[in-house]
């Protein structure tokens, strides 16, 4: 054996000795390759998620219009990719709006989407998608769980989900902490080329959303007809003063029955 061949054999032997042995039935990835995030291939059955369950309905078309407005306002010289969807009080349909907007964006060729359930007090995105409780933001912030280990690839277009995680004692303190701010900024910078849609708690009952509003690039306010008062909306707008308000979604609106342009439809109450 020549010296060159001997050197190559020793190098191969050294590499083999440095690679950890895989447990039975498992393989070991090279250290420079990240682990794959498993795809859930979620089958949407909830009729309120019209972008997945009924994409040819008038309601779905309204969400496409909302998506077009959002894209127009957030893309340009600087991509404003982190947005929140909120409401004044509970029951106005913010979660359903956030889900349909995220699905609509994720179904396009040009967009990938990370949907974040930041409503830790009352997380409901998982129930709409038919998945159980999962580790999420709480575990990332409090237990040091890696973000990649909390993400769920839904199989719905290019949509990934970061669940809320377990209930915490003081959500307001957690969300106003520097740890939370750093976490969201890290997500924003890590996924700079994708939309990050955050479903937040309602503004008036809780303090968390006011803290988040200082971090995001823009906000969408959901207002349900007949449920919230004009003074409530005015107070909400005052609370979000300084936030880039991208628009207001008027939810559950009743249109004239004889109108050919509009259709009557009602959405969810999350």
Secondary-structure blueprint of this entry?
Layout: H1 3-18, H2 50-53, H3 58-74, E1 82-87, H4 94-106, E2 113-117, H5 125-129, H6 137-142, H7 147-150, E3 152-153, E4 159-162, H8 171-175, H9 178-190, E5 195-199, H10 208-212, E6 218-224, H11 230-239, E7 245-251
Parallel strand pairs: 1-5, 1-6, 2-4, 2-5, 6-7
Antiparallel strand pairs: 3-4
Helix pairs in contact: 3-4
Summarize this structure briefly.
This protein is an alpha/beta fold.
Characterization of the model:
By secondary structure, this protein is α/β, with parallel strands linked by helices. The protein has one domain (38-251): P-loop containing nucleotide triphosphate hydrolases (Rossmann fold), CATH 3.40.50.300. Helices cover 36% and strands 13% of the residues. Strands 3-4-2-5-1-6-7 form a seven-stranded mixed beta sheet. A hairpin with a 5-residue loop joins strand 3 and strand 4. The chain is globular.
List its traits.
270 residues, Rossmann fold, 7-stranded mixed β-sheet, 7 strands, 11 helices, alpha/beta
> Largest sheet, order of strands side by side?
3-4-2-5-1-6-7
Q: Terminal Cα separation, in Å?
A: 73 Å
Tally of strands: 7
Major sheet summary line = 7 strands, mixed
> What sort of overall outline do the alpha carbons produce when their principal axes are compared?
globular
Radius of gyration: 22 Å
Q: From the 3D coordinates, which CATH architecture would you assign?
A: 3-Layer(aba) Sandwich
Number of domains: 1
Determine the oligomeric state from the structure.
Answer: single chain
Fraction in helix: 25-40%
* Averaged pLDDT: 83
CATH class: Alpha Beta
């Amino acid at each position: 054996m020549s010296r060159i061949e001997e050197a190559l054999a020793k190098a191969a032997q050294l590499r083999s000795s440095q690679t950890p042995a895989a447990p039975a039935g498992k393989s070991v990835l090279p250290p420079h390759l990240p682990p794959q995030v498993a795809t859930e291939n979620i089958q949407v059955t909830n009729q309120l998620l019209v972008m997945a369950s009924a994409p040819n309905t008038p309601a779905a078309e309204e969400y496409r219009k909302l998506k077009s407005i959002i894209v127009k306002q957030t893309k340009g010289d600087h991509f404003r990719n982190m947005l929140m969807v909120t409401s004044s009080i509970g029951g106005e349909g913010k979660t359903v709006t956030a889900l349909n907007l995220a699905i609509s964006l994720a179904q396009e060729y040009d967009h990938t989407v990370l949907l974040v359930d930041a409503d830790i007090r009352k997380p409901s995105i998982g129930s709409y998608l038919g998945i159980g409780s999962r580790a999420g933001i709480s575990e990332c912030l409090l237990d040091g769980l890696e973000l990649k280990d909390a993400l769920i690839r839904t199989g719905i277009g290019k949509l990934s989900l970061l669940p809320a995680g377990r209930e915490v004692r003081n959500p307001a303190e957690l969300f106003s902490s520097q740890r939370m701010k750093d976490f969201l900024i890290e997500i924003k910078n890590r996924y700079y080329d994708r939309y990050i849609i955050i479903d937040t708690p309602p503004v008036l009952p809780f303090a968390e959303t006011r803290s988040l509003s200082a971090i995001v690039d823009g906000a969408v306010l959901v207002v349900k007809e007949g449920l919230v008062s004009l003074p409530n909306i005015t107070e909400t707008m005052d609370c979000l003063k300084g936030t880039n308000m991208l628009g207001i979604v008027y939810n559950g609106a009743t249109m004239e029955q004889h109108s050919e342009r509009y259709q009557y439809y009602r959405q969810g109450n999350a």
